[in-house]
Amino acid sequence: MNRILLAAIFIAVLTACNQKSVNTSADADKIFDTFKERFVEKLWEVNPGWATSQGYHKYDSVLVIPGPEEDKLVLAFADSVDTWLQQWKPEALSAANKTDWQLIKNYAEYTRFYINEFKGGEWNPSNYNVGGAIFDVMDNRNAALDTKLKAVNSKLKNVPAFFEAAKGIIHNPTKEHTQLAIDQNKGSLYFFTAVLPDSLKASGLAATEKEEMTKNIAAAKQAVEGYISWLEKEVQPKLGDSARSFRIGKELYEKKFKLDVNSQYSAAEMYKKAEERKAYLTAEMGKLTEQLWPKYLGKTKMPQDKAVAIRMMIDEISKQHCNRDSFLPTIEKQLPQLTAFINSHNIIDLDSTKPLKVRKTPEYMEGGGAGASINSPGPYDKDAATYYNVSLLNGYSAEEAESYLREYNDYVLQILNIHEAIPGHYTQLIYSNRSPSIIKSIFGNGAMVEGWACYVERMMMEEGYNDSPEMWLFYYKWNMREACNFILDYNIHCNNWSEQQVKDLLVKEAFQQEAEAKGKYKRATLTQVQLTSYFTGLTEIYELREEIKKKQAEKFDLKKFHEQFLSYGSAPVKDIRALMLNGN
Ligand code: ZN
Ligand code: ZN
Questions:
Q1: Are 126 and 177 in contact (CB under 8 A)?
Q2: 74: three-class secondary structure by DSSP
Q3: Fewer CB in 10 Å around end: N or C, the chain?
Q4: What whole-number distance in Å separates Cα of residue 561 and Cα of residue 250?
Q5: Measured between alpha carbons, how far is residue 11 from residues 77, 98, 191, 443 in Å?
Q6: Collapsing DSSP states into helix, strand and coil, what is residue 380?
Q7: How far apart are the first and last CA of the chain?
């Protein structure tokens, strides 16, 4: 299909579903469901790479060449979607469809914002990298190797043109994103030197096909190397002090916050809440330190400076940690304890038919740093298992391992398990998968997802899970990090904060390590707004709960609140809020 022709047929295809008259709300929902199906099909046709990454493999062989024509096509799609949505009154739809309507509308708005105003394609050279496009095809566990290689081979033919186009689009990039593009593209060379040649050897393709693909691999590799050396030799030397700043500024920040986070508050309003929370946490951590001092540091005089005293207390209690060989089994052992507490305290119904599998993070998913995260199946592969990936400390020196284990000490490890697993991300995912909306799977709201995981940390503490002052101290430290993530991201992008200011905040006021602060600063130079999602989601969910609690008084049921909240799928909290307060 000619990609330019595609644009012309959007309106025809999408409006075709609204021909019938809508007499009842049941009709409205039925017609809307048809629209959604067509919308998703078109969405994937317009964004084949995104489709593959979501596990939809019809367009695996397509590598889109970026450029103004492509932008036009994507914009035309967004406009036609909008035109179509405007014919509807979302009030006529069911709760599930109402939120889908909002999410699709948000997609159209975001698309226009990204191409017309944000223009990441111009100043972020790391947008151009084919590693992910190859990985997502090869990673498909449901396809035969030969099929996958044929798809990749067809993509490879476009790789040289892809990077030529990229060079034409890039204009006044930031230093940070240029360096990122160089590093990441160097990482992708591995596909051409190892992954693809090895897979090709193991495949059943005919000798002529192998020969052709070998040529395409070599040409693609050369194109990636050419792009890297262009960035290094022609772009980087010109990036002086007048190069574009990675800081996006207040105006773009507010807009991106509105579309990414989709909160009822503006970024500036939420920033104030983060500052307030930080002040509260500092005071509470001070009180806990005084309370714990005799037990742990009775022989030492408590320093006048409260921040210094808190830091000493944290360092002292952090010595309580598991050893490096028992990291994974310790996590594994905690999960049934969490489940038991949740069941006995009527917190939320846990699906006992889908137990979580704890495993060592597979080699190819290791991102360098240790840690633990949930690896969930995509919307097209719901039956695949969900794993709790735990990175072992294999590459760590004794000193590095000790530092890491102190950070994830006996108390913090429990918070981590609540956040990642039960009743955090893993539990939310099970509920989200019960809401059959593919729209919510594709456009899932990051602030709702992270907010839930942060909300349950606080909720579990308040319900009395490990009600010790030590545990509260570390929960507050963790919560402080969530608030400070907001504060630093906002200040870096809107108020010109330097790396030193970020370090001062995180090390002196949030009791983190230098290395963590350095990594956080780097992350905030490369992303915008994402770091605010934790605190924003948490705050909005907590406020919603308190409001409903007040409204329902003695009728309030925590378990019912949780189950209803999660029943809408990963929609923005502000949309769930509207549905819950209106008694839907
Ligand atoms: Zn130790
Ligand atoms: Zn999380």
A1: yes
A2: helix
A3: N
A4: 36
A5: 8, 22, 39, 22
A6: coil
A7: 43
Beta strand 357-360 with 372-375 is unpaired
Question: Which listed ligand is nearest to 425 at the C-alpha?
Answer: 2
432 versus 189: which is more confidently predicted?
189
Cα(510) to centroid(ligand 1), Å: 21
Name the strands in the sheet holding 357-360, side by side, starting at the edge strand that comes first in the sequence: 357-360, 387-390, 372-375
**Would you tell me how many other CB atoms lie within 10 Å of the CB of residue 2?**
7
Model pLDDT, residue 352 = 76
Q: Are 457 and 475 in contact (CB under 8 A)?
A: yes
362 in the Ramachandran plot: left (φ > 0), alpha (ψ -120 to 50) or beta? beta
For the ranges 78-92, 124-138, 142-156, 226-240, which has the lowest average pLDDT?
78-92
User: Any idea which ligand is nearest the CA of 446?
Assistant: 2
Phi-psi region of 529 (alpha: psi -120 to 50; beta: other; left: phi over 0): left
CA-CA distance, 398 to 328, in Å (whole number)? 17
How far is Cα 50 from Cα 58, in angstroms, rounded to an integer? Answer: 11
DSSP summary character for residue 319: T
The ligand minimizing its distance to the Cα of 426 is 2
Q: Which ligand is nearest to the CA of 533?
A: 2
Ligand number nearest CA of 403 is 1
Distance 429 CA to ligand 2 centre (A): 12
Sign of CA dihedral 366, 371, 377, 383: positive
Which ligand has the nearest atom to the CA of 322? 1
Distance 547 CA to ligand 2 centre (A): 25
* Ligand with minimal distance to 373 CA: 2
- CA dist 535 and 269 (Å) reads 12
Tell me the pLDDT band of 521, cut-offs 50, 70 and 90. very high
Round to whole Å and give the CA distance between 128 and 121: 8
Least confident residue range of 225-239, 300-314, 386-400, 448-462: 386-400
Average pLDDT of the chain to the nearest whole number: 92
**SS3 of the chain: helix, strand, coil, percent, to 5:** 70, 0, 25
Of 224, 219, 222, nearest in space to 182 by CA: 224
Q: 447 C-alpha to center of ligand 2: Å?
A: 10
Asked if the model's pLDDT at residue 23 lies above 80, the reply is: no
Bridge partners, 372 (sequence order)? 390
* Cα 321 to averaged position of ligand 1 atoms, centre (Å): 6
* pLDDT (0 to 100) of residue 1: 47
Distance (angstroms) between ligand 1 centre and the Cα of 476 equals: 22
Compute the distance from residue 402 Cα to the ligand 1 centre, in Å. 5
Q: CA 159, CA 64: separation in Å to the nearest integer?
A: 9
pLDDT of residue 343: 96
SS (H, E, C) 138-154: HCCCCCCHHHHHHHHHH
Q: What does the pLDDT read at residue 515?
A: 83
For the chain, percent of residues with pLDDT exceeding 70: 94
The three-state secondary structure class of 239 is: coil
**Residue 332 CA, ligand 1 centroid: distance in Å:** 20
Beta carbons of 200 and 210 less than 8 angstroms apart: yes
pTM flag (> 0.90): yes
Nearest to 521, CA basis, from 484, 553, 550:
484
Ligand nearest 405 Cα, by number?
1
Asked if pLDDT for residue 19 goes beyond 50, the answer is no
